[in-house]
Amino acid sequence: MSKISEAFSNKKAFVGFLTAGDPSLEKTEEFILKMQEAGASVIEIGVPFSDPIAETPVVQEANVRALSAEGGCTTDMIFDMLARVKDKVSVPVVLMTYLNPVFKYGYEAFMKKCDETGVAGIIIPDMPYDERDEILPMADKYGVDIISLVAPASKSRIRMIAGEAKGYIYVLPSLDAADGRKDVVTDISDIVAQIRKVTDTPVVLEIGVDYPEAEYETIADGFVVENAIVNLIAKHGNDAAQPIYDYVKKTVESL
Asked: Looking at the domain assignment, is residue 4 inside a domain?
């Protein structure tokens, strides 16, 4: 069992998300520790990218803020920040990025850096499942889980994707749920059931509201609300640590 899977043992997991460098990498470091203190089981860190096509408008704006900050926010700067905080973070850290930055950095060099800085997993939303073999050997070599994504459009391929999943499976209940809409596809239970037939890898459901409805709370192993913490950072800036703590603690206690 990987470090990520262990985070889901005997409890519903809250996966905290923020964008690195928003409003600064020093504050990102502080916010990571606050999320952990408040009870987050896994921390996802978005790597700012110039064309974040899979992100919500809220997260796209955070990418712009991070890239526009004084000194910018490069991949190496993020790894340096993670190296500083590594010994203080006991929960798994997962990077959300795009294939181009990883390719440009070099697959092996990127995975080696993940291993050195305590990154347990990576999400690459624009990497087709059929092309994952390009990067998978390097990820396996350095013990980094490639997190699989399943969306409604993946339905015919769910069992194939889930069968080789590691860490956790990130389920998008609708193409719009991350934008804050409450409506999700009506067959989410069937999607999760299909996953359960081929793997016991934990299922994380992205929801568009702060707290999961009862139906989804019973079928998922964990939840991520991508916009929530990013919105708090946009609102409070450098003073967002306490609001983040309060939000995560309240959400964790609701699960």
From this structure: no
**In total, how many domains does the chain have?**
1
Q: pLDDT tens, 177-236?
A: 444 444 445 578 888 999 999 999 999 998 765 556 666 778 899 999 888 999 999 999
The single-letter code of the amino acid at 131 is E
Residue 194 lies in a domain: no
Pairing state between β 148-150 and 119-123: unpaired
Q: Is 203 within 8 Å of 232 (Cβ atoms)?
A: no
pTM: 0.92
